[in-house]
Every structure is written in C-alpha cells, then in structure tokens.
Design brief:
Oligomer: single chain
Shape: globular
Distance between the termini: 27 Å
Strand content: 5-15%
Largest sheet: 5 strands, mixed
Radius of gyration: 32 Å
CATH topology of the domain at 535-659: Heat Shock Protein 90
Length: 660
C-alpha cells in the first residue's frame, strides 16, 4: 500500500516531455571556445591529467601566476577545469583542497558568481565521498540558486540539479529527488545536451528502483545507455550498465549475473584504463565469482584491485572494496568475523542518510549470519534492511502521516469549539425552546412551500436530463455512423486508389498514406474502435496509451471496474475522461496525469488528476471559454452522476460519483 501511494505521488510529478514548449526550447547555444595560451590548453586536456604526473605542479604554477597578475577570472577558469577532472577521479588531495579554499575566501568575490560554481561542486563531491550528504546538498543547492546567462553556466546549474537529485534519492527523499531531476531536465534541454539528458534518465531509473517499479527503472536505464552510445561516450555507457546491474541487484533479478559477466568482459577487451570503472566492475565480478564458489579467481581480482583502491584513496570506493572483500572472506571461511569496520561505519552512514550503502553493509552481515546458521541475527539484519529499504522509498508515506496528523489536530480543535458552543447552548435552553416553538410553525409552512417548488424543479430537471441523454445518445450514434463511413468507405477507397497507380510514386503514396492515417485518427476520435466489444476498461487503457505515445505525456490508469454500467453510460464515462485528458494536454501545462476508476459501496468513482498550473473554477465556469468543463458536468448528470472540480496552483482534480 505504501509503495502504491508513493507511486501515485511520483507519477503525478513525472514529466519526460510535457513541460511548456517555451521552457524546453534551446536557449543557449554552445560557444566557440576562445583561443587559449599553450599552458592553459595543455591543462585543458584530460589525457594530460590522467597520464602526466606533472599535471598538478603545472596547474599550481599557472594558477599562482594568474593570481599574482590579479587575473582572477583566468585563475577561476583553470580551477574549474581541474575541479572536474579531480572530482570525477575522487581526487581530494590536501594541497588542491587548500588552494580551492584559499580562492573561495580571498578571490571568489572578484569573479562573477556564475564563473565560480566549481568551488561548490568540488566541495559537494568531497562531502559526498565522506558520507556527509546534508553538507553535499547544501553546496549543490548554492549552485541551483543562480540563473544562467550562457551555455556553460546553464550546464553547471543543470548538473547541480542532477547531483542534488541523486543525493535526495540515496537519502530516501524521492519527492525532492524527482523535483530536482525535473529541473535538471529543463536546464539540459535549454542547451540541447544529450549527455545531460542521459544523466536525467539515469536518475529516473534510480527513483523507480526505490519505489519498486522494475519495468520503468530498466526502461530509463536503457534510455540512458542509448543516449550515451549516441554520443559515443564509452565511459558513461559503462556507468549506465553499472547502474542497470545495481537495479537488477536491488530487484533480485536473475539477469544480474549475466549482465555483470558480459560488461566485465567487454571492459577487459576494450583495454580501458579508467580506474573508477575498474573498481566498480571488478567488485561486481568478484561478487559473481564468490556466488559461483570460484574463490581462486575472486582472490586474484581482489589482489589486482587493491593497489588501485590505495592509489585513489576514496572513502566511498574503499568501503565498497571492503564489502566485496568481506563477501569473499565469508565464503572462504564461514567463521570469519572481522566486521568491525563495517559495523563501525553503519551508525555514521545512517546519520548521514546514506541508506543505499547501509543496505549493502547489512547484506554482508546477513550473509555471514546465514552461513553460520545464526538465523536469529539473520532475521535481525533482514528487518534492519527492510527499514532501510522503506527509508529509501517511504518519504511519501511520511508525508501522508504528517497530513493525517494535521487533520487530526484540526478535528481536535473543532471538537473543542463544538464543546464550547454546547455549553453556551445549555445556558440558554429556555430561550431556545420558546424560540423553537415559533420557528417550528414558521418552518413547517416554509418546508411545505419549498418541497412543492423542489418537486416541480426535480420534474423539470428530470425532463431536461432525459432530453440531454437522448441528445447525447443520438450524437454518439451519428458519430459512430460517420466514423464507420470514414473507415469502411473513404479509407478503403483511398487504399484502392493507391493500388491502382501503375507507376509507384513515393510522394503520392506517402500523401495517400498520410490522408488514410488522418482519417483513421478522425474516425477513432469520433468513436472509439471496438468500444461496444471491449468495454470501458480496455478503451480507457487504449486512450491512455495513445495519449502517451502521441503527446509524449505521462499518464497512468488504475481501473477497478466490473461492468456495472450500461454500454451507453460507459461511453459517456469514456467521453468525460477523453475531454478531461484533452483539456490537460492543451491548457494545464502539466507534467503528468492519473485516471482512477474505483467502486465504492453502491457508487462508481471516476477521478482524473493532473499536476498542472490550475485555474479559478468559478471564474472559468462563468466565463465564455468553458465548453469542455460544462460538457463534463452535463455528461455526468445524464448518467446519474455528480461532477466536482477542484483546482489550485498544484493541479486539478475532477471527481465524478455515479450511482450504480
């Protein structure tokens, strides 16, 4: 139930391309880089950082020279380049960190803020490696407070939102992760950056993993891999595959082992020299070998990996290596018990909300307990893992608890007010009784007159409702006839005309195909195909699928319906949903919508939600531009239902309750 609730909240905010087109169009074009001096050009090349041990000494000399010349902008630009290389390599050495902090305190104010975001980004990555996620988030948020004015600043802000989204994900704050990822998408779109959009897909796969939606998690992981391949970014293709392995691992998917083996072999064959990729893929490979009881091979890989771990000296990567080593030692010796480092790290990781890493640590301890037949501790670790898993995906539930607490406190206040009113009423009982005698006589007359008027109005309403129902039914019959004529007559005639052409003309054929396709769309909009045979549920599912594919718009449907309405009434429900979806796509600027059909007691409840910009319901209904809303209300009345429309800046909810 918890994950279902989380899923509803997340899908209400999900976007993938339904942001306003004006916000999604390219705003900043990539600039042609200015010609650089020889030293700066040399420092700019990543291969020099990777292969030349003099890189940092050349950097320090150049930086100090620019500071001495009071050329702070040039000094900032060279630090920006180096920060990217060092952070990506988990290189947080003390001399460079001291230089960053010196620049931050002494010279940063001399350079425009958009040119110094590298300081916050580098420090954020440092605190992430040290498991202080709250501090890391603070630095990333500093960057997101800025507004871009060129391609590079827009990229830096987009990347900060992406990193912030990932921080929130591993802290279990999936709602905040989703919002940050959405902003990252918007900024990467402004510069039309495919690599950045691949980052976004990768984060979406993480979020879906956290809430247990394996299908969408893998879909987004594959989108990220495809995007990296399209720009020939081999490093990030491997990162995408590693992310997919992690999803399989989290979901306990049997495909994990085969994907590890194939990715590991591809990496070996490629002769890639990336130390980060080597650590992550070798860790996974050792895990496979341990499961297969190939301990000699596993030990060889661990020995190969040890000097790389010591060279990089990253807390994060070192802990992962220790976990992998512990898995090997447990398999080799069931009595292995050297878990002091792991147990010591767990409280700090929980405090810093590093839930994903905590889950891995508990998994190692649980494996050891099971191997030693210590099922009491194995159960304890399983319960601890479940708590951590819930922490990753349970933020929405906590929000719901807070909401219910607010409602409860409000009800308590209302009860207190009601009690006060009752006390006052008891003090004035005599006056109230005397007044009630007079009011009783007066109300009897008023009620009699009112009931007579209501009876007359009810009869008029029933007649109007019957007329509207007959009118709608006749309209649907005519729509069905026109749709059939278009599909069976005009469409077939065009198809025959196409086949009559002796000389195949691609332009003519394409034009005829386009006309046929337009006719099919018109026909489908006039009357849903096979509605009479497949019923309401399947027709709505087709409508949702079509809305997503045609408009690239996230729509989900949750339908619990047992054919309790007549076919004509079902068709009216379908038209209501169709009209509401059309309004959302055209006017709401929403990123997602959800359709729910449920049965409650003697009523059928239809609900259409979106997370758009909302509107003033009364003002809209009283205006001249509300045909769609009136159409929904009138169709609801015709089938004995009542439509309620609630809307504010966080979205719109249309609810129709129909008596069965």
């Amino acid at each position: 139930m918890t994950k279902r609730f989380i899923y509803i909240i997340l899908t209400l905010f999900l976007f993938l391309s339904c942001v306003d087109k004006k916000e999604n169009e390219v705003v900043f074009e990539k600039e042609i880089p200015a010609k650089e001096d020889a030293t700066k050009s040399w420092l700019h090349k990543v291969e020099n950082y990777k292969k030349d041990k003099k890189y940092l000494s050349v950097l320090y000399k150049y930086y100090n020279q620019k500071i001495a010349e009071h050329n702070y902008l040039n000094a900032a630009e060279i630090l920006d380049i180096a920060c990217v290389y060092l952070a990506d390599s988990y290189d947080f050495n003390e001399p460079f960190m001291a230089m960053i902090k010196e620049f931050d305190t002494k010279y940063r104010k001399e350079v425009p803020a958009l040119k110094t975001t590298f300081v916050d980004a580098y420090l954020a990555n440092y605190y992430y490696d040290k498991y202080d996620l709250k501090k890391a988030c603070e630095y990333f948020r500093n960057i997101t407070l800025l507004e871009p004015n060129d391609y590079n600043s827009c990229y830096n802000i987009a990347r900060a939102y992406y990193d912030l989204s990932y921080m929130y994900y591993i802290m279990g704050k999936q709602n905040l992760s989703l919002v940050a990822n959405q902003k990252s998408f918007e900024y990467f779109t402004k510069i039309n950056n495919p690599k950045g959009l691949a980052f976004v897909y990768s984060n979406y796969s993480n979020i879906y993993t956290a809430i247990g939606d394996k299908k969408r998690a893998i879909e987004n992981a594959d989108k990220a891999i495809k995007a990296y391949k399209s720009i020939d970014n081999t490093y990030n293709v491997y990162i995408g595959l590693i992310n997919k392995i992690s999803i399989y691992d989290f979901m306990k998917d049997s495909r994990k082992r085969a994907l590890i083996d194939s990715t590991y072999q591809a990496f070996i064959d490629s002769k890639d020299d990336s130390k980060i990729l080597k650590i992550k893929l070798y860790d996974f490979k050792v895990e496979n070998l341990v499961e297969e009881n190939k301990l000699t091979e596993a030990k060889k890989i661990l020995d190969d990996l040890k000097p790389v771990i010591e060279e990089i000296d990253s807390d994060d990567l070192t802990q992962e290596y220790k976990i992998t080593t512990a898995l090997y030692e447990i398999k080799k010796n069931p009595n292995y018990s050297n878990f002091n480092d792991i147990k010591k790290a767990i409280p700090t990781l929980i405090t810093n909300q590093q839930y994903e890493k905590v889950n891995m640590f508990y998994g190692v301890l649980q494996n050891n307990a099971i191997q030693n037949n210590d099922f009491k501790n194995a159960l304890h670790y399983e319960e601890a893992k479940q708590i951590i898993t819930d922490s990753i995906g349970n933020i929405a539930a906590r929000g719901r608890i807070a909401e219910l607490e607010t409602i409860y406190q409000t009800e308590k206040k209302e009860q207190k007010i009601a009690l006060q009113k009752t006390t006052i009423l008891n003090k004035n009982t005599t006056i109230a009784l005397l007044a009630s005698l007079f009011l009783g006589l007066f109300l009897t007359v008023v009620i009699y007159i009112t009931r007579q008027k209501q009876k007359k109005l009810r009869l008029e309403k029933q007649n109007a409702q019957l007329y509207t129902k007959q009118l709608l039914e006749k309209t649907e019959e005519e729509r069905k006839r026109i749709a059939s004529d278009l599909h069976d007559s005009v469409s077939h005639e065009l198809l025959g005309l196409k086949n009559l052409f002796e000389e195949k003309n691609d332009i003519t054929n394409n034009k005829i195909d386009s006309i046929i396709n337009d006719i099919r769309i018109i026909s489908r909009n006039l009357h849903p195909i096979m509605f009479d045979k497949i019923g309401l549920k399947s027709s709505v599912e087709q409508l949702v699928e079509r809305a997503q594919s045609v408009n690239d718009f996230m729509v989900t449907a949750d339908i619990d319906y047992n054919n309790s309405l007549t076919t004509n009434d079902e068709l009216q429900v379908y038209r209501i949903i169709q009209e509401a979806l059309s309004n959302i796509i055209k006017y709401a600027n929403a990123v997602a919508a959800k359709i729910t059909i449920s049965q409650k007691n003697e009523s059928l409840i239809v609900e259409i939600k979106d997370n758009g910009k909302g509107f003033d319901v009364n003002e809209k209904l009283n205006g001249s531009n509300a045909f769609g809303l009136h159409n929904i209300i009138e169709r609801s009345r015709v089938i004995g239902g009542e439509a309620k429309i609630l809307s504010d800046k966080s979205g719109t909810i249309i609810t129709i309750q129909i008596k069965k």
